[in-house]
Amino acid sequence: MSDVRNVYKDVANRLVIRTQDVYQMEREDGVEDYSETLLAVVAAFDNSGIPEGCNARSMVGRSKRGEVAVQLFAVVDSGTETFTHVGFRSRGCLAMTACASLIAKMITGKTFEQALAIKPEKVRDALDGIPADKIHTMYFATEAVRALVGDHLIRSGAVIEELDRRVPCEGYGVACLMCEHCSLRDGRVDMRFD
User: Fold this and answer.
1) pLDDT tens column, 106-118
2) CB atoms within 10 A of CB 3
3) How large is the angle between the packed helices 94-107 and 36-44, nearest 10 degrees?
4) How many domains, in total, are found in the chain?
5) Is residue 13 part of a domain?
6) Please, which residues bridge with residue 87 across strands?
7) Range of the domain at 94
8) What is the rounded CA–CA span in Å between residue 44 and residue 48?
9) What mean pLDDT value characterizes the chain?
10) Which CATH number do you get for residue 132?
11) Rounded to two decimals, what is the model's pTM?
């Protein structure tokens, strides 16, 4: 697997935000279109990375017209199906970083059902808006939660019927059509062919 592309690799001479957990690919013309709340979430950057004891992970994103992706990493209390600690990595733009950071905070302490109930619009509203050309980022964030739940279920031995019941895929839904890459979709495919 040495030919697998490392999407978190540093690129020389690129004037973008680049840390261990965030890799901003898009050059921003400025921050005029971003709310103060969104920029404050990006600046806080206090829940990035992989938490110690991580037992669930997910990835959602796209590569067309630039890489935009979110990875979520969680410590899940399997007995109560509660997210006890959630971290993130993001790639793309300020909006993706804000949505990833916010969704990680929003689901910490929540049960699977509570986390799955969070809709993209709630992410947008909590950030006091997202620029229209970045609206996909709120969908990626909530889809990453679905994939995180699915990953934990798969790791816990769930069969495809349980996965379909608890985190059903809407193949022609807006979020699914936006996502080129989805670890939940990949997990389903693996289960069907194993």
Assistant:
1) 999 999 999 999 9
2) 4
3) 70
4) 1
5) no
6) 73
7) 22-193
8) 10
9) 85
10) 3.90.1010.10
11) 0.83
